[in-house]
Amino acid sequence: MYIQWIVLFASFGQIFAGWTPERIVGGQSVKISSVPWQASLQVWGEHDCGAVIYSKQVLITAAHCVVGRLPSILTVRVGSSLWNSGGQLVNVSHYIAHENYHLPANESNDVAVIRLQKPLRFNKNVKPIPLATTSPASGSLAIVSGWGSTGWQMAGSTNLLVVKLPIIDYESCLKTAYQGITDDMICAAAPGKDSCSGDSGGPLVFGDQLVGIVSFGRDCAHPTYPGVYADVAKLRPWLLQAIKRIQQAKQHIK
Ligand code: 4AZ
């Protein structure tokens, strides 16, 4: 009886503190086979960002995940629900970040394409995802996944987490506390649910298509700041061009 009271009070405590176990923020643990396009982009062998499998040798991520970094310190892990073991670990040979991604002016065009040194082997845990051709309607329930923080300034997760979030229309996102939202961005938010740092560069998926790339947010799951994603349909012409260029490119020198 005494134990039950302790458990009850502990649960109330967690609810009032806004805490539940297992979060991207507010999410749940999944097997990689339910999001087989998800990759971990690693710097010196540590998870740093998410990335998305486009083809056997090309992945998509956020520009801010790669800009200023030598390709030789970057690796990608795919096909594992754990960022630190299993699946396939492949070196990055080269990347192209969007030429008009210019921090600190704003966070527009936060996309990049990555080429791997060796092709991936596709299987039930490693699959590409097509790029959306139209932006998702507001209210669409999209899924975002990653190994990022489980709350603002909290540690990342070793196990892959996912959360379902509704898309917010551009006009209402413009009216939020953010300044500098541009029309190549999508916003998504729900109370207590969000992507967070370390999820950047990862996939926002709706209708089995890649609709967004985790880009930024002030805080995580903050009531007045939605999560912001690069709009894949809007950036599709640049992405397709960059994919063509990176497929033709010789191996990165150095
Ligand atoms: C980040 O720092 C970050 N709430 C990514 C996404 C969000 C917040 C922060 C969305 O990479």
Task: Explain this structure.
This protein is 16% helix and 30% strand. It is an alpha+beta fold and 254 residues long. It has a 6-stranded antiparallel β-barrel. Strands 2-3-4-7-6-5 form a 6-stranded antiparallel barrel. β11 (203-206) and β12 (209-216) form a beta hairpin. The radius of gyration is 18 Å and the shape is globular. It starts with a helix and ends in a 6-residue tail after the last helix. Mean pLDDT is 89; it is low at 1-22. The structure holds 4-(aminomethyl)benzoic acid.
Task: Kindly summarize this structure in a few lines.
This protein has 254 residues and is α+β, with helices and mostly antiparallel strands.
Q: What order do the helices and strands follow?
A: HEEEEHEEEEEHEEEEH
The assigned structural class equals alpha+beta
How much is the radius of gyration in Å? Answer: 18 Å
Major sheet strand order? 8-9-10-13-12-11
Write down the CATH topology of the largest domain.
Thrombin, subunit H
Uncertain segments? 1-22
Number of extended strands: 13
Q: List ligands, each type once.
A: 4-(aminomethyl)benzoic acid
Number of helices: 4
Query: Would you identify the CATH H-level superfamily of the largest domain?
Result: Trypsin-like serine proteases
